[in-house]
Specification:
- The chain is mostly helical.
- Helices cover 67% and strands 4% of the residues.
- The protein contains 12 helices and 5 strands.
- The strands form 2 sheets. Strands 1-3-2 form a 3-stranded antiparallel beta sheet.
- A hairpin with a 5-residue loop joins strand 2 and strand 3.
- Helix 1 packs across helix 2, helix 6 crosses helix 7 and helix 10 runs antiparallel to helix 12.
- It is globular.
- It starts with a strand and ends with a helix.
Length: 251
């Protein structure tokens, strides 16, 4: 089914001018142009527009969005990865809602202010105790300072890179690749390089330590929150196995 540019603008809550700009930037070319010169878009274009709008909400600029879209050839895997991030964000917002409801209740005289619950969900620090227990106080403090030093756009770009990597892992697992094969090992190298951009991790000769990488792979399998990022337990097991091989051969 084809949609006119006016139809798409109405459905997406945007403007025809914005859609034409996306087309000029190479992000959303029309599926066809009618004999009357009007632009028409098919279902695949709608899927692409949805991904553009999702990435825009992460704060990415148009050049970065084009790079992400060009690198993610499997739309379903990319959307699954983004859905995982949205579900995590939904859980965070639900914690914020409960927190604000509790504050309103207290201010209306129906209970005391609960200081330990007032700020739940407002940032990433609800993982503080878990990170400190797993990897030590220094690891949390260094990572926290690094994250807070980033601008919102830098954080969004980093999250988008993470989402792309997760989508590629999920796609590889779906295709049942050999964890020790070339394609899986290239993904493992990308994962280790991505981890290497995070300060405070255990390192040897400047690279994430082999024991740390293997332990992280085991955590992906053991913790449902992380397994969901890779398509579930099967995908997480694939990541673990590929990282185990990579660590043995390169770290």
């Amino acid at each position: 089914m084809d949609y006119s540019i006016q139809d798409i603008a109405r459905l997406a809550g945007t403007t025809s001018r914005t859609l034409r700009h996306y087309g000029a930037e190479g992000l959303l070319p029309p599926s066809r142009i009618g004999s009357n010169g009007y632009r028409y878009y098919d279902d695949r274009a709608l899927v692409r527009l949805q991904r553009i709008l999702l990435l825009r909400e992460l704060g990415l600029g148009l050049p970065a969005i084009r790079e992400v879209l060009d690198s993610e050839v499997d739309e379903r895997a990319a959307l699954r990865a983004h859905l995982g991030w949205l579900e995590q964000e939904k859980a965070r917002l639900q914690r914020q809602i409960r927190s604000v409801h509790g504050t309103i209740t207290a201010l209306e005289g129906e209970g005391p202010l609960m200081a330990d619950a007032m700020f739940d969900g407002f940032d990433h620090t609800h993982y503080k105790e878990e990170v400190q227990e797993r990897w030590g106080q220094d690891a949390y403090a260094t990572g926290d300072a690094w994250w807070r030093s980033k601008t919102p756009a830098e954080r969004a770009e980093w999250q988008a890179e993470s989402g792309t990597l997760q989508a590629d892992w999920a796609d590889a697992a779906t295709r049942q690749l050999d964890p020790a094969g070339d394609e899986a090992q290239l993904l493992a190298r990308r994962q280790v390089e991505w981890l290497g951009s995070i300060p405070g991790l255990p390192r040897i000769d400047g690279h994430p330590a082999a024991d740390y990488v293997r332990g992280l792979g085991e955590m992906y399998v053991a913790d449902d929150r992380f397994a969901a990022n890779y398509g579930g337990p099967t995908g997480a097991a694939f990541v673990r196995d590929a990282l185990t091989v990579y660590a043995a051969e390169h770290l």
